[in-house]
Specification:
The complex is a heterodimer of chains A (372) and B (382). Chain A is an alpha+beta fold. In chain A, 16% of the residues lie in helices and 44% in strands. The radius of gyration of chain A is 25 Å and the shape is elongated. In chain B, helix 16 packs antiparallel against helix 17. The two termini of chain B are 33 Å apart. The longest helix of chain B has 24 residues. A five-stranded parallel β-sheet of chain B has the order 2-3-4-1-5, sandwiched between helices. Helices cover 53% and strands 7% of the residues of chain B. With 382 residues, chain B is an alpha/beta fold. The chains are: A alpha+beta (372), B alpha/beta (382). At the A-B interface, loops of A face helix 4, helix 5 and helix 7 of B. Chain A: Pfam families: DNA_pol3_beta (PF00712), DNA_pol3_beta_2 (PF02767), DNA_pol3_beta_3 (PF02768). Chain A: Belongs to the beta sliding clamp family. Chain A: This is Beta sliding clamp. Chain A: It is found in: Cytoplasm.
């Protein structure tokens, strides 16, 4: 292997892929990045055995070949090279060392054999479609806060993606829940996604994907099967395992016949909840809402700290109701509302409440009240 | 007697189970696994039992490689010339990519659970320097934690997922309970391979959820063959002695060879052959050696009671000493020198004394001298 590559291009790619490489690894090869030089491009590949990021950078290849080298060390070196430098990569005689030359610097890095590098076999993807970066970002941002961290219900530790219809319109839907709250976001169904299997994308993949989306403004092409998902950006491809489980029938927990409709300014409510919750007990963070005609009274009580009350104007016509929420959960949801007003549709103090952005019908949140 | 070469050189000659392509003398167990696989009745959990050093972990990795190199069920569908013939053995050639990745620990569908490192920071330094880090004596719940997450994700290469627990009887109670959860509700297309030297130490709930695969100790001929392959530097007679001492375990034979067991054994037999008048200076010399070195101490604790037990067994069964080795001769002479009950008492006392010495750090040299004296006295009193 022998090639020359521009420092900034190499740095950008290494920056993307080194984030999946864990700092402490008991398996030596997992600390390494796979370098594969052929056909005028250098392929870089890193994995933690659950997800894999591969990137290809155009470079001047004198001799094709492949090897693996320590990812963080390589990234550190390239980061410290001067801007605009040319980097020359080659293997020494036995292929045990990667030699990096740039200007008057020369580095020798220990390599490990390529055939030890984990394979994330692509297999065959059954469905492929392309979705705009903005849509994908919206689906992730508005659902990821609700992903569960509880290990026993592992099938909740991710975002459930599936194709369905909403009011007769085909949609691609993302759902996440931890049993206390649920977030459901939909976008119009992209071409090719019809009939796709319902899958669960793991939390870590969601986080890595989110970082990559920020750097691209283009469409993301998604391919998936029932055991793998692949996201392709400009030059970057991410392949991940999925959660091997069945997402619960979430439709059942979204109430449809709640009748007490409260409309209120999202920002005002958010700030008030934040203030009042300062007083509530450390762990539960409960806030009580007393809703009556035209007004909501927020209150919190703590036997040690004292009490807090705040009144807010609101539009409400149904019979008065008192209902309690976990303030952190409520704030999480209010944080996703982009329009001015939020609509809370309640039934009673012990039944799930539906929360929606008045200006945006694509997202729906369900929050379980607390007994206060 | 030839001195064993430096331990590192010997250890290099013996591949660890994950890198060992050969398995000898366990054809029956392999056949049972293969029958289960081809019959479509592959159990989700196998408990591989048998003494240490007979190839349980080697078989576990062999099963793992075999299962991992089988095509994913949906890919295996119809082919032009009908279904491929069913596999006839578990071997995966070392040139296979699966073999490389299993050896490197980097196969995405294999998870190995072993005792964790006793010191994480030191372990990181050791790994960077290419040394094998020290491990704890037991598997704790932290070592098992990643298992649930591993099995909750889809396979990386599309086929099966395999977990090797080496060794299952090193799991403490919490770790065993964590594994039990997985054993109770195994995900589809996942196989757990539990290696256990001492299955009786496992909580009863674990063996009851596994298919037992007992491995037999190796035949002496197999041990001799393996020694010839792995330690060609040893002489013919050394190999025969080791095969006799190995009790069917190649691991034990190799440990004995590596830690200088032949030499200690030879010295011990020489001394025992001199009873009832042992050379006091040599007894002290042996005591000094044993006191200095942990390996030699372990050898002495193992070899002397073992030899006494063999001798008592000889006295009880009246089986004539078949071999004309110095050990056989000494055994025959001593077993005639005193009644059986006295030798059994000596054996018990020896075990007790050596055990206490280890447990409360008594003077090892004194323990060696005391046990030798005990034997001398028993033999002399007749």
């Amino acid at each position: 292997m022998q090639l020359t590559i521009e420092r900034s291009a190499l740095l950008k790619s290494l920056g993307h892929i080194q984030s999946v490489v864990e700092r402490r690894n008991t398996i030596p090869i997992l600390s390494n990045v796979k370098l594969d030089a052929r056909d005028g491009a250098l392929g870089l590949n890193a994995t933690d055995m659950d997800l894999e990021i591969a990137e290809s950078v155009g470079s001047d290849i004198a001799k094709a070949g492949a090897s693996t080298a320590p990812a963080h060390t390589l990234y550190d070196i390239v980061r410290k090279l001067p801007d605009g430098a040319q980097v020359e990569l080659s293997l020494d005689g036995e292929g045990n060392h990667l030699v990096l030359r740039s200007g008057r610097s020369r580095f020798n890095l220990a390599c490990l054999p390529v055939d030890e590098f984990p394979a994330m076999s692509a297999g065959s993807y059954t469905h492929s479609f392309s979705v705009s970066a903005a849509d994908l970002r919206g689906m992730i941002d508005r659902t990821r806060f609700a992903i569960s961290t509880e290990e026993t219900r592992y099938y909740l530790n991710g975002i459930h993606l599936h194709a369905t219809t909403s009011d007769g319109v085909p949609v691609l839907r993302a759902v996440a829940t931890d049993g206390h709250r649920l977030a459901r976001v939909e976008v119009p169904l992209p071409d090719g996604a019809a009939g796709m299997p319902g899958i669960i994308v793991p939390r870590k993949t969601v986080a890595e994907l989110r970082k990559l989306i920020d750097e691209t403004g283009m469409d993301v092409s998604v391919s998936l099967s029932d055991s793998k998902i692949r996201f392709a950006f400009d030059d970057c491809v991410m392949v991940s395992k999925l959660i091997d489980g069945t997402f619960p029938d979430y439709e059942r927990v979204i109430p449809t016949d709640n009748d007490k409709v409260l409309e209120i300014d999202a920002a005002t409510l958010g700030k008030a909840v934040d203030r009042v919750s300062a007083i509530s007990a450390e762990k539960s963070r409960a806030v009580k809402m007393a809703v009556e005609k035209g007004q909501v009274t927020l209150s919190a009580n703590s036997p040690d700290a004292g009490s807090a009350v705040e009144e807010i104007e609101a539009s409400y016509d149904a019979s008065p109701i008192e209902i309690g929420f976990n303030s952190r959960y409520l704030l999480d949801i209010l944080g996703q509302v982009e329009g001015d007003a939020v609509r809370l549709v309640m039934a009673d103090a012990s039944a799930p409440t539906v929360i929606r952005d008045v200006a945006d019908g694509s997202a729906i949140y369900v929050l379980m009240p607390m007994r206060v | 007697m030839a001195r064993a070469p430096a331990p590192d050189a010997a250890a290099d000659a013996v591949p660890p189970p994950r890198a060992n392509p050969d398995l000898i003398g366990q054809a029956a167990a392999e056949a049972e696994v293969l029958r289960a696989w081809t019959g479509g009745r592959m159990s989700h959990a196998w408990l591989l039992t048998g003494p240490k050093g007979i190839g349980k972990a080697t078989l576990a990795y062999r099963m793992a490689r075999f299962v991992l190199s089988q095509p994913a069920p949906d890919e295996a569908g119809g082919t032009l010339f009908g279904a491929p013939p069913p596999p006839t053995d578990l071997a995966v050639p070392p040139s296979d990519p699966v073999f490389h990745r299993v050896q490197a620990g980097s196969h995405g569908d294999l998870r190995v659970i072993e005792p964790g490192f006793s010191d994480a920071k030191q372990a990181q330094r050791d790994l960077e320097a290419g040394r094998a880090p020290r491990r704890r004596g037991e598997i704790v719940v932290d070592d098992v934690r990643g298992l649930g997450q591993f099995l909750s994700l889809t396979p990386a290469e599309g086929g099966w997922r395999v977990v090797v627990i080496d060794a299952a009887d090193q799991m403490n109670r919490n770790a065993a309970n964590a594994v039990l959860k997985v054993l109770e509700e195994p995900p589809r297309r996942a196989i757990l391979l539990l290696v256990a030297h001492n299955p009786a130490r496992l909580p009863a709930t674990i063996p009851s959820r596994c298919r037992r695969l007992p491995l037999r100790p190796l035949a002496p001929a197999d041990i001799t063959t393996l020694l010839g392959r792995l330690r060609p530097d040893l002489t013919e007679s050394d190999r025969a002695t080791l095969a006799g001492l190995a009790r069917g375990s190649i691991g034990r034979a190799l440990t004995l060879a590596r830690t200088g067991g032949l030499e200690v054994y030879g010295e011990l037999i020489d001394l025992l052959g001199q009873t009832p008048r042992m050379d006091v200076a040599r007894c002290h010399a042996l005591g000094d050696r044993v006191a200095r070195d942990d390996d030699t101490w372990a050898l002495f604790r193992d070899l002397l009671p073992g030899w006494l037990a063999d001798m008592a067994r000889l006295g009880a069964t009246g089986r004539p000493p078949g071999d004309e080795t110095p050990s056989g001769a000494a055994m025959a002479r001593l077993s005639r020198a005193a009644p059986l009950d006295r030798w059994v008492a000596v054996w018990e006392k020896t075990i007790h004394l050596l055990g206490r010495t280890e447990a409360v750090h008594l003077d090892r040299k004194q323990a060696v001298l005391a046990t030798l004296l005990l034997i001398e006295r028993a033999a002399g009193r007749a």
